[in-house]
Design a protein that fits this description.
The protein is an alpha/beta fold. Helix content is about 30%, strand content about 25%. The protein binds S-adenosyl-L-homocysteine. S-adenosyl-L-homocysteine binds next to strand 2, helix 4 and strand 4.
Length: about 210
């Protein structure tokens, strides 16, 4: 797999579209300029890699739309050096965008095949991240607390264990809902017993499945 000026040109077109759709954070847009999304897709999709589309990545899962990745990333209000927990590594594209923003990424995937594939691509692109094969509902307690948590699969409910692993003052971005549609929520942890919830529109993710590591 190779990058080229042609792909870079396609990335610039995608960034224009993301900006027109309301993404404002220049640091997030700049990360989209750096990460070659076509590396994360089957070569048959390479020509469409910079259109705002989701694609199959194997094991019945999909890489999120670029707009969804940009929207969730912007909501995290990242600061360099933040510790970020991601649930649903999938292709590793969102993981790379986070790494490109200078944060420490910890990411969990329940499909071994996808976990291993993402690990290879991230190594190839020289992003230093901690990838774990396991159940995202359990989080990564040995690395907690996290400044931010991002969930990239549709959660049937807000997992209490992941709120426990979030710092006070920390932010979780999570699509919540049991059907094919979920509501994007921004949850700010105010204290050990209080959270503030903001509802930010309807999205469609593959489901977050509990205790079914494959
Ligand atoms: N961030 C990914 C999105 C992939 S789709 C990307 O940019 O490509 C969501 C992923 O969540 C799928 O790969 C799915 O296998 C994974 N997933 C679902 N439930 C999970 C769980 N309980 N723990 C970890 N990963 C989970």
């Amino acid at each position: 797999m190779q990058d080229s000026l042609r792909y870079k040109g396609m990335r610039e077109e995608l960034i224009k579209k993301l900006r027109n759709s309301g993404i404002k954070d220049e640091k997030v847009l700049n990360a989209f300029n750096k990460v070659p999304r076509h590396f994360f897709l089957d070569t048959t999709f390479a020509e469409q890699a910079y259109s705002d589309m989701a694609f199959q990545i194997g094991a019945g899962q999909t890489i999120s739309h670029p707009y969804t990745v940009a929207f969730q990333t912007e909501l995290l209000q990242l600061e360099r050096g933040d510790k970020v927990l991601e649930i649903g590594t999938g292709s590793g594209f969102q993981t790379s965008i986070l790494a490109e923003l200078g944060v420490k990424v910890f990411s969990i995937e329940r499909h071994k095949e996808l976990h291993l594939k993402a690990k290879n691509i991230l190594q190839l692109l020289k992003y230093k991240t901690q990838l774990k094969f396991g159940d995202g509902f359990k989080g990564m307690p040995s690395y907690a607390p996290f400044d931010k948590v991002i969930i990239t699969c549709g959660a049937p409910f807000v997992p209490g264990e992941l709120i426990n692993q979030l710092k006070i003052g920390g932010i979780m971005i999570i699509p919540v809902g049991e059907g094919v549609k979920q509501q994007m929520q921004k949850i700010t942890k105010l204290s050990d017993s209080e959270t503030k919830i903001e509802k930010l529109g309807v999205f469609s993710f593959v489901p977050m499945l509990e205790d079914k590591v494959k």
